[in-house]
Amino acid sequence: MQLEGRKVIVVGAGSGIGRGVAIAASEAGAHVVLAGRKRETLEATSELMKGPLEVRVLDASVEAEVAAFCEAVGPFDHLVSTVSQGVAGPLTGLGFASIERAFAAKLWAPIYLVKHASSRISPDGSFTFFSGFRAWKPAVGTSITSLVNGGLEAFTKAMAVELAPVRLNAISPGVVDSGSFWDRLGAEARERLFADYANKAPARRVGTTADLAAATLFAMTNPFLTGTVLSVDGGAVLM
Ligand SMILES: NC(=O)c1ccc[n+]([C@@H]2O[C@H](COP(=O)([O-])OP(=O)(O)OC[C@H]3O[C@@H](n4cnc5c(N)ncnc54)[C@H](OP(=O)(O)O)[C@@H]3O)[C@@H](O)[C@H]2O)c1
Questions:
Q1: Out of the domains of life, which is the source (predicted)?
Q2: Distance of CA 72 to CAs 54, 67, 178, Å?
Q3: Which of 3, 14, 215, 222 is the most buried (most CB within 10 A)?
Q4: What pairs with residue 32 in β-bridges?
Q5: How does pLDDT run across 120-144, given as a tens digit for each residue?
Q6: Probe ligand 1: pick from 9, 10, 15, 133, max atoms within 8 Å of CB?
Q7: For residue 22, how many C-alpha atoms fall within 13 Å in the half-sphere facing its CB?
Q8: Which of 69, 81, 83 should be mutated for ligand 1, with most atoms under 8 A from CB?
Q9: Separation of 84 CA from ligand 1 center, angstroms?
Q10: Is 110 in the pocket of ligand 1 (CB under 6 A)?
Q11: First to last CA, the chain
Q12: Is the dihedral of CA 205, 139, 146, 153 positive or negative?
């Protein structure tokens, strides 16, 4: 199965892995719909692409916006969502608003996207959602990240059963140098994290957006891959 002439929606296309996926899908010949909350970052992604594309501003955590977005985009073949809102720290210190943002990005947004887009996806199409390694490797301060990533993986599997033959998969990245994702740590702590990960992971490096984009294209185009969580983490499970 190829992406030439297929319509691919990327929610989160304005940065990091989503930007990498949008560019790779475009290079593979897809018509790409770039979605996210900030027009300027989506337009910056569009400038790195040559093929047919649409830029659509979308807050995927608002159901009415997702419904209108799906109506406007119409029939499509594949949808990828990298939507994420970071929340870190011991549970007792977390404000409810930050917990709610993390739920909205990793749980409500995928639910709304599947609910409103599934009647418009082609039968050989796919949804690919991004979870993360904290689902299976928690640390102090990751309770909500672990919860939403694990929940997203369970939802993806359940919907792969419910929507078959449409395929749904989750990709679980390890530590990826994707731009701003780790900025909240500050430069020094980020470099320490990257060095520690590279030292321990069997791949001996952190991931790149190209690694994750290649895995996403594989998930989109392999017709026998569904209901699975693809760990793309340099072997972190063995650390
Ligand atoms: N990078 C890593 O090391 C790593 C590790 C484990 C898991 N992951 C997961 O991999 C995925 C991609 O990560 P990344 O590094 O590319 O992160 P990123 O650059 O922060 O990408 C997240 C994207 O989601 C968009 N977004 C956030 N809330 C949204 C909303 N309500 N509606 C629409 N778009 C929204 C953001 O754009 P706007 O703010 O402009 O909307 C942004 O483009 C995420 O799900 C992340 O949790 C990454």
A1: Bacteria
A2: 11, 9, 30
A3: 14
A4: 8, 53
A5: 999 999 999 999 999 999 999 999 9
A6: 15
A7: 32
A8: 83
A9: 4
A10: no
A11: 35
A12: positive
Q: Give residue 1's pLDDT band: very low, low, confident or very high (50, 70, 90).
A: low
CA angle 71, 104, 156 (to 5 degrees): 75
- Tokens 């699975």 identify what position? 228
Q: Residues, the chain, total?
A: 239
Give mean pLDDT, residues 89-107. Answer: 96
CA distance 183 to 160: 34
Q: Is 84 in the pocket of ligand 1 (CB under 6 A)?
A: yes
24-59 per-position pLDDT tens digit: 999 999 999 999 999 999 999 999 999 999 999 999
Q: List CB contacts of 121: < 8 A, sequence separation 6 or more.
A: 75, 76, 77, 78, 79, 127, 166
Amino acid making up residue 193 = L
Ligand 1 center to 20 CA (angstroms): 12
Cβ partners under 8 Å of residue 155, min gap 6: 107, 110, 111, 129
The reply to whether ligand 1 has any atom less than 6 angstroms from the CB of 179 is yes
What CATH number has the domain spanning 7-179?
A: 3.40.50.720
Domain boundaries defined on the chain: 7-179
